[in-house]
Write a structure and sequence with these properties.
It contains 9 helices and no strands. Helices cover about 70% and strands about 0% of the residues. It is mostly helical. It starts with a helix and ends with a helix.
Length: about 180
């Protein structure tokens, strides 16, 4: 019943349902419902982000928070399927453009959830995503720095010095991961 409520158009209702699904529920149901929901929110943010009207801007701001909360709720269920779902979604984040900075808004939130899971596949998905933000076109820097920040926190947490942020930051993270 709660999973169907995620389809409500009201983001506050969706947020309340995500909070309810965050702990102590049937794993199968939650993984399916939250995995699908986080993808729906991602798509809606990408669809609305370039619209100039205030309603769309407000929606994107609130949905960005909901996206992060849904990612964290999904990561609470320490299961390979949660990793698969989040890894699949982070791979769908596209490079930023002049009109669309959805990646800058979403990449840190999903990377935090993946890195909280801490599996080899979760870390690898985040490091692979660094390749999306290597262009020196001015649009990728915010997403690149956010993903680097989250990866650096993870590296420190596991007791391994993170690489510095530089023009070759993606290669540096690949090397770090291989060590």
């Amino acid at each position: 019943a709660l999973g169907r409520t995620l389809e409500d158009e009201d983001l506050e209702v969706q947020s309340a349902v995500v909070a309810q699904l965050s702990w102590g529920r049937d794993v199968e149901t939650v993984l399916d419902a939250l995995g699908a929901h986080v993808e729906v929110v991602r798509k809606e943010v990408e669809r609305r982000i370039s619209r100039p009207d205030e309603e769309s801007k407000s929606y994107v701001n609130r949905a960005t928070r909901l996206f992060g909360d849904t990612c964290k709720a999904l990561a609470n269920y320490r299961d390979d399927r949660a990793v698969e779902s989040l890894a699949s979604i982070i791979q769908r984040l596209r490079a930023n453009t002049e009109d669309n900075n959805a990646s800058a808004r979403l990449v840190g939130r999903i990377a935090e959830a993946l890195l909280d899971l801490g599996t080899h596949d979760a870390v690898q998905a985040c490091i692979r995503q660094t390749q999306t933000y290597t262009e020196v076109d001015g649009y990728q820097e915010v997403a690149a720095k956010e993903l680097h920040r989250v990866l650096a926190i993870f590296a420190t947490r596991v007791g391994k010095a993170p690489p510095d942020f530089s023009q070759t930051w993606s290669v540096s993270w690949d090397n770090w991961f291989e060590e």
